[in-house]
Amino acid sequence: MFKKIITAEDHEIENLGLINTLRGLQIQDYEFVSYCDEAYNKIKQGVAENNPYELLITDLGFVADHRNQVINTGQELIRAVRLLQPHLKIIVFSIEKKPMIIDDLFKNFDVNGFVSKGRNDGKELATVIKKVFAGETVIPQEIVSAIRNNSQAVTDYDIYLLKRLSQGWRQKEIEIDFKEKQIKPDSQSAIEKRLNELRETLDAKNNIEMIVMCKDLGIL
Question: Would 209 disulfide with which of 117, 196, 202, 204, CB 3.0-4.6 Å?
Answer without folding.
Answer: 204
